[in-house]
Amino acid sequence: MQASRPVPSRLTAAAAGIAAGGLGLGLAELLAGLLPGAPSPILAIGTLLIALQPPNAKQIVVDLFGTNDKAVLSVAVLIGALALAAALGLVERRWPNWGRIGFAVLGVLVLLAAIRDPLVDLLLAAVAAALATAASVLALPRLMGLATPRQKEPRMLDFERRRFLGTSLAVAGAAAVSGGVGRFLLERRAAEVASIPQVPAPASAAPSPPAGSSLNVPGITPLVIPNDQFYRIDTSLLVPHLDATTWSLSVEGMVDRPFTIDYAELLAMPLFEQYVTIACVSNEVGGRLVGNALWRGVRLRELLDRAGVQDGATQVVGESFDGWTAGFPTAWLDAPDREAMVAVAMNGEALPPQHGFPARLIVPGLYGYVSATKWLTRIRLTRLEDFDGYWVPLGWAKEAPILTQSRIDVPNYGAQLNAGMQPIAGVAWAPDRGIQAVEVQVDDGEWMPAKLSEPISEATWVQWLVSWQATAGPHTIRVRATDGTGETQTDQVTRPAPDGARGWHTIQVNIG
User: Fold this and answer.
1) Quick one: residue 347, left, alpha or beta (phi over 0 = left, psi -120 to 50 = alpha)?
2) Is the pLDDT of residue 154 over 60?
3) 455 phi and psi, to 5 degrees?
4) Which of 184, 195, 214, 295 has the most crowded CB, counting CB atoms within 10 A?
5) The pairing of beta strand 349-350 with beta strand 341-346
6) Phi, psi of 478 (to 5 degrees)
């Protein structure tokens, strides 16, 4: 009878697979950081998972991780990749060569996922995938050989284990360093802003905020959110950098005169400014996925008039560079004071890359998932029944006006306060209807009217303030707002899906 061949233990085989897979992954991440246009496997697989997400998955992830969702997904992809590499090590232990074949197949799959990104260079992607796959395929048999016991003498077995452990740690260390350096370079590139050109002054500047538009309350949300503090929710795992010199915007579909305009031509059009509060539909009652900014750009009406919208066109669809889409009814543009825009600047500066450079759509009164297309490259006119934007098939409403909402900023939930006069303050918004009134209730007492800041416009939020004579003990504080049409927030609680969260923001405090 032929003696069975020596094989490594399951643990060492899995470790060999992890080290080999990590080496290839780390090399690919390093190449992505060094060579613009080379893909990151982690970002490519993460982006594919986002594209394949089931309905309502977005809200679950946002609920759990908030704006850290992208980092969590990247870590999950890394863990999943290493687990798969461990499994291939076990396959190689049982069936030699099949683990290596598995790594080769994974390399092809990652390449196919990567080339979905329009910013990825196909040749660089192929070369990077080949090099990374080769690193894993060559490392695996070497590590498996070191992990296979060859001597029965205890001292030699101990030497072999130490040699395998040392080699595996060296390979894993090289993988970690190369991957870490690659991710650092990718993140640094994503944060670069030096190449963004200066945006011309507007032909029609926004009026300065009126006196009394801000209330002097420590801890209250500022009237205008700085760019680096403005919330960011989108499907891009890494901030894309589009080149303004090659970027263009096309207007097409159900139009008489389709055209394409480049960045310089867009900036040469009459620019105007307006303050607009925008919000994410995933924002929970009392959440922070909402912000107000001064936007500068071109009136969407001017671009549509130039194209000549055809009768029967009932939807404006914005498309991002990567194919992400959002659509809203053309009827939303009928109100003369509702100025949708192609924005090119934010708070006096060119759009930061994380907020959509070179251009994005801003549509007052609509949640961002149906309107606020970042990294805009195409505007298409179609019929509402003919096309659904990215999030609609995933369980979100097709039409999504921003709900009337209010939030308590001061005091914080669970705050310990002294008895006596205490401020209760926050913000309220109902773009594009404006806020007519805000009321605060403590425990089961009477609703107290709040002092409102002077609104900039109906498209922006307002700050509000109630002075409360606090008494000792635990208290429950809640707030509700009434918009410009006279509609008051409902106390009926709903989840964000499919068209926004409802309910009164409520906190508890303790008075000493």
Assistant:
1) left
2) no
3) -70, 145
4) 295
5) antiparallel
6) -135, 160
The per-residue pLDDT for range 18-66, each reduced to its tens digit, is 999 999 999 999 999 999 999 999 999 999 998 888 877 777 877 777 7
Tokens standing for residue 420: 């006596």
Q: Which two tokens stand for residue 442?
A: 């403590």
Which one-letter DSSP state was computed for residue 194? T
Tokens 């409520």 -> residue:
506
Tokens 């005091």 belong to: 411
Find the mean pLDDT for residues 320-339: 94
Residue that the structure tokens 């945006």 belong to: 199
Cβ–Cβ under 8 Å, residues 183 and 33 = yes
Note whether 316 and 386 are within 8 A (CB): no
**What is the DSSP code (8-state) at residue 478?**
E
Whether a cis peptide bond, with omega within 30° of 0, leads into 411 is yes
What are the backbone dihedrals phi and psi of residue 218, each rounded to the nearest 5 degrees, phi first? -55, 130
Q: Quote the Cα angle for 391-393-394, to 5°.
A: 60
Beta carbons of 468 and 287 less than 8 angstroms apart = no
Enter the tokens of residue 409: 């900023």
CA–CA dist 299, 274 (Å, integer): 11
Instruction: Give the torsion through C-alpha atoms of 94, 135, 75, 113, to 10 deg.
Output: -100
| Mean of pLDDT values over 241-256 | 95
Distance CA 407, CA 427 (A): 6
Q: Cα separation of 306 and 458, whole Å? A: 28
58 closest CA partner among 407, 292, 393: 393
How many whole angstroms separate alpha carbon 399 and alpha carbon 395? 12
Return the number of other C-beta atoms located less than 10 Å from residue 503's C-beta. 18
Instruction: Kindly state the DSSP code that residue 487 receives in the 8-state scheme.
Output: P
Whole-prediction pTM: 0.87
Residue in the block written with tokens 């309107």: 371
248/267 Cα distance (integer angstroms): 12
| Cβ(177)–Cβ(26) below 8 Å | yes
Q: Which amino acid is at 222?
A: P
What is the crossing angle of helices 57-65 and 69-94, to 10°?
110
Sign of the torsion formed by the C-alpha atoms of 141, 146, 149 and 152: positive
Residues in contact with 435: Cβ distance below 8 Å, sequence separation at least 6, in sequence order: 404, 428, 429, 452, 455, 461, 462, 464, 481, 482, 483, 484
| Other CB atoms within 10 Å distance of the CB of residue 357 | 26
Element (H, E) at 70: helix 69-94
